[in-house]
Design goal:
This protein is α/β, with parallel strands linked by helices. The protein contains six helices and ten strands. The chain has an eight-stranded parallel β-barrel. Strands 9-10 form a two-stranded antiparallel ribbon.
């Protein structure tokens, strides 16, 4: 593992978390615009946090939406500039949103078997996450992992991120087993739901990039 592993820290809600991502040279920070999530922020709050990132050197900003309408996305974009739209939605809807807003679109994909690995084109990245538990009211951010070996030898049509159940203690193994070149973490670097821990973020980034080896 080297610094070539890309890192997204998702579900930022406060300045401490954003500053830790900047200090650790994370590639992306994610804001959740889904009101059932403990990590939900408004567009205005996301703008306040995003302004801490240097526009040229800081992490890019990713907005996470669940089955959004065009109006919901447009309302957020009226408040904050996003570099990427990440969607929990259908492939067809992802294509529509990509064309409508002219931004890169990442599609979250629930994985529990090799058959679930996506093969769609016209998407900029896939985010591979574990299938949500039966009683969860959220499609992601549940801290659940899937079998990382499922992606070994998989030829994806587009770049992808490994998500789901990652933390500073297992991300190194997850990268080694899955072959992932990019990882996405949320609950695994929190002190409590929705509140990021700066030391955990730093430890996660070190581990993902081989700093603890």
């Amino acid at each position: 593992m080297t610094a070539s592993v890309q890192i997204k820290i998702c579900g930022l809600t406060d300045e401490v978390g954003v500053d830790a991502c900047i200090a650790g040279n994370a590639d992306w920070i994610g804001f959740v615009f889904f009101d059932r999530s403990p990590r939900y922020v408004t567009g205005q709050r996301a703008r306040e946090l995003a302004q801490r990132c240097n526009s040229t050197d800081g992490p890019e900003c990713v907005g996470l939406f669940v089955d959004p309408s065009d109006d919901e996305i447009a309302h957020v974009l009226d408040h904050v500039t996003l570099d990427v739209l990440q969607l929990n939605s259908s492939v067809e809807r992802a294509h529509e949103i990509r064309q409508r807003f002219g931004l890169p679109v990442w599609l979250a994909c629930s994985v529990s078997s090799r058959a679930d690995l996506p093969a769609h084109e016209g998407i900029d990245r896939f985010v591979l996450d574990a299938r949500a538990p039966v009683h969860s009211d959220r499609p992601g951010g549940n801290g659940v992992a899937f079998d990382w070996s499922l992606t070994r030898g998989w030829s994806s049509p587009v770049p992808w991120l490994l998500a789901g159940g990652l933390n500073p203690g297992n991300v190194s193994d997850a990268i080694a087993v899955s072959g992932a070149l990019a990882v996405d973490v949320s609950s695994g670097v929190e002190s409590r739901p929705g509140i990021k821990d700066a030391e955990a973020i730093a430890a996660f980034i070190r581990a993902a990039r081989g700093g603890d080896q």
